[in-house]
Amino acid sequence: MEERPLILVTGANGQLGQSFRFCAPAFKDVDMVFLDRSQLDISNAKHCRKTLEHWMPDIVINCAAYTNVEKAEDEPEAAMMQNGTAPAFLAVACALTGAHLIHFSTDYVFDGNQSTAYVESDAVAPISAYGSSKLSGERGVISSGCEHWIFRVAWLYSPFAHNFYKTMLRFGKDRPELKVVADQWGAPTNAIVLANDILHVCCKWLFDDNWDMPTGIYHYAHSGKTTWHGFASEIIMKSGLSTPVVPVTSADFPTKARRPMFSLLDASLFFEKSGCASIDWKTALDRCIQTHHDIDNLRQ
Ligand SMILES: NC(=O)c1ccc[n+]([C@@H]2O[C@H](COP(=O)([O-])OP(=O)(O)OC[C@H]3O[C@@H](n4cnc5c(N)ncnc54)[C@H](OP(=O)(O)O)[C@@H]3O)[C@@H](O)[C@H]2O)c1
Known about the structure:
Largest sheet: 6 strands, parallel
Oligomer: single chain
Bound molecules: NADP nicotinamide-adenine-dinucleotide phosphate
Shape: globular
Structural class: alpha/beta
Order of helices and strands: EHEHEHHEHEEHEEEHEEHEHH
């Protein structure tokens, strides 16, 4: 019997890892294995190599990362280890075993001073410890020599783990009003739609000899743009809540980490190469709310 392709997912208990897990059953022509940090700590180079030698996956999807942007300012070395050094360990193991690596990076590699959406070739200039660590991870993956796609994503949300969408739903039920910054721009991205599109391109890469998407960096985002305030207002309205959402400025909410004021990623290269259909951020939010209801109903 012919062996089926294997996709191995790291950081499987995080938001994006759980989104891949949720999408996996629809991709019936591949096997997938999901490893959380206790099963594969990507900051251990030997463990990366041994694990990949054991599973010999065709594709590795790296969802493991240090994602606490505020805490990274206090412990930049830890962020650099997990986001800068560890992806290189995984990438070297991929190069040794012949696996194709899919890695995720961020809009935080940019300073946010542009007024048009960032393309892949725009100059990087991180303004936070988290952004610097993620940029270092991109460079480590590229210099490992493994075949890879690096997807820069921004403003991820889903029904899983911790994210802005879930926080707004909780606050919208618990608090008399919400104050949300209205001067940072971006495109909220449904992590389940992202995972589904990535698995779609994985299958094209595995099964269609006439299709190729060259190794390199790709931006992924839904179309349209909004502010965190615009996003929060849409979440509250579409969830049937009536909590007032008050616009405030970033200056009203001082944080340790500086954030890019403008985070829009131009994803046209990915959609052109992949053949996936781009959707706007409001449609993506509708889908998340529907999926969230479906999951809650299944649990009852
Ligand atoms: N969330 C966003 O808005 C956003 C925006 C731009 C880019 N991204 C990128 O998208 C990717 C996925 O993010 P996410 O939202 O899914 O983050 P997440 O929910 O914080 O998940 C990250 C996962 O990685 C695990 N992890 C951390 N260090 C590890 C290690 N050394 N070995 C194995 N697992 C480890 C964490 O485990 P523990 O829980 O045990 O720490 C956690 O389960 C990341 O690369 C992130 O930088 C996210």
